[in-house]
Amino acid sequence: DVKVTQSSRYLVKRTGEKVFLECVQDMDHENMFWYRQDPGLGLRLIYFSYDVKMKEKGDIPEGYSVSREKKERFSLILESASTNQTSMYLCASRRTPASETQYFGPGTRLLVL
Amino acid sequence: GESVGLHLPTLSVQEGDNSIINCAYSNSASDYFIWYKQESGKGPQFIIDIRSNMDKRQGQRVTVLLNKTVKHLSLQIAATQPGDSAVYFCAELASGGYQKVTFGTGTKLQVIP
Prior knowledge:
The complex is a heterodimer. By secondary structure, chain A is mainly β. Helices cover about 0% and strands about 55% of the residues of chain A. Chain A has one domain (about 5-110): Immunoglobulins (Immunoglobulin-like, Sandwich), CATH 2.60.40. Chain B has a single domain (about 5-110), classed as Immunoglobulins (Immunoglobulin-like, Sandwich), CATH 2.60.40. The interface between A and B is medium-sized, with 19 and 22 residues.
């Protein structure tokens, strides 16, 4: 089975702090994604990565950056956390663009005070 | 813009009855559809998928129906159980290029014992 893990289930940070969210998948998937999930808005794509060291902006990249130094790991970085970044963050991976199904991690619930 | 939406935000069903969750999509180019289940505090879990060359696909206790004429997708759960209580959302995807996935906002299924 595909396993996608996220470094934290819950995080509390203060405004202005730099925040790192880590995601690891164990199935050698090429593609990885970061979403945020907010009530009434569904899943919104922040960034995605086709492969190592490759990244593409999603629908809402402002205030975020990402890093993909190793195939199994995709990091989301909030350079200076703000209260409007309080959300549930979900990481996902999939094998290739031809394999449509994305497999999700358990999520990180981030609260920015 | 294109959207994927659900008709009912909350659905209450008696245990043992069948559940039907609906989804409307607007992108006529979408050719792959996925249903996810998200339990409280967890990441979305793949349930079943269907391609546009099909109008019905069955899994274990679940059936997905696709009506391309009216751009409508439904998930049927047979003999609903308390463990089926969750938020269900659909996703659509158009082949070609990156294959951007659009997610619906979700329907909460409540199973009454």
